[in-house]
Write a structure and sequence with these properties.
This protein has 331 residues and is mainly alpha-helical. It contains 18 helices and no strands. It has 3 domains: 63 residues, Arc Repressor Mutant, subunit A (Orthogonal Bundle), CATH 1.10.10; 82 residues, Orthogonal Bundle (Arc Repressor Mutant, subunit A), CATH 1.10.10.630; 100 residues, no CATH class. This is DnaD domain protein.
């Protein structure tokens, strides 16, 4: 009797380097691992960034990041003609003038707003092997954001830690705030982290105080936005300062904000933050905190005009005249 083995799916297999498991299994993300498996499956056949991104269901940028990771770790050695041409074009580009740029680096080092280059996958992998706290940072960030970090994401976090000088606990506080505010993207996190570094916010207490202020300012603008019926949008820096004064410092409730808004629109036909600010500033100065008190103020001004033998008093004209005097048009 003769037998024949039926291997099924084992009839078609490909090899995976042991270094992938031994050195990169903990460090590589899901996209990187999927990309490697897909590339190895091609058996040396040529492919493009578009082919890889479509096969993985990711953006071309993420596909290139994944390939870059395996190239820098030495697992893959891709011979792409486009890459060769790019490398050859880049070599003559550093003329004697650009080569002098590193000499000016020490000057940039003392600048208050340096922007170091984001580290590549190979360097990130090495740093994670050396530092377990950084490994935890990456894992905790993935849990908070709810997705696997790309190679560029991990590079950004390492940049924030190593170059900006923010410790892991402070970075996680920022990531948590960004996620809870609907801004859980690395661009926003990196931008805020750089601002914190410039301002010397590097401790848990400092970060806690700044996040509380950011939360309060966000709440203040939300109160203004809802009270005045403004469209959903990000406020300007000037509007943030106005909202801070109106809500956090002067403690005007929503009805008073709406009343000031209505008087502004009735007087000049549009919302002008500077105009509204002068109304609320006057009310704050005169201790007016309710609609009844605001109405009494108007009645008092009307009575004063009548006592001075004025034929009439135009409330709109009064608001417009007094406010535009201070705002130069309310802008």
């Amino acid at each position: 009797m003769q037998y024949q083995t039926k291997s099924g799916i084992w009839d078609s297999v490909f090899a995976v380097p042991t270094a992938v498991v031994d050195q990169n299994l903990k460090l590589a993300g899901s996209v990187q691992l999927k990309a490697l498996l897909w590339v190895l499956r091609q058996g040396g056949a040529s492919f493009s960034d578009k082919d890889l991104s479509q096969a993985l269901g990711v953006s071309p940028a993420d596909a290139r990041d994944a390939l870059s990771y395996w190239q820098e770790t030495g697992v893959l050695q891709l011979q792409a003609s486009g890459m060769k041409q790019q490398t050859e074009k880049e070599k003559p580009a550093p003329s004697p003038v650009p080569q002098k740029a590193p000499a000016s680096a020490p000057v940039a080092h003392f600048s208050p707003l340096p922007r170091p280059e984001r580290p590549g996958p190979a360097f990130v992998s090495k740093r994670l092997e050396e530092n377990k706290a950084l490994q935890c940072l990456m894992l905790d960030t993935e849990q908070i954001l709810g997705h696997t970090l790309s190679a560029s994401d991990m590079g950004s976090l390492l940049l924030i830690h190593d170059n900006y000088g923010l410790p892991c606990d402070v970075i996680l506080m920022l990531v948590q705030y960004a996620a809870s505010s609907g801004k859980g993207n690395m661009h926003y996190i990196d931008k805020v982290a750089l601002n914190w570094a410039d301002e010397g916010i590097t401790t848990h207490l400092q970060a806690e105080q700044r996040l509380q202020k950011m939360t309060d300012l966000s709440r203040a603008w939300s109160t203004v936005q809802q009270a005045m019926g403004l469209p959903e949008r990000a406020p300007t820096e000037r509007e943030k300062k106005y909202a801070e004064s109106w809500v956090l410092q002067w403690h005007f409730p929503a009805p008073m904000l709406k009343l000031a808004y209505d008087r502004c629109v009735d007087a000049i036909g549009a919302f002008r933050p500077g105009y509204v600010n002068k109304i609320l500033e006057r009310w704050h100065r005169e201790g007016i905190s309710t609609a009844e008190q605001a109405a009494a103020e108007t009645s008092q001004h009307r009575q004063n005009r009548q006592d001075a033998n004025k034929p009439s008093f135009d409330l709109d004209a009064y608001e417009k005249e007094s406010m535009l005097k201070f705002t130069g048009g309310g802008r």
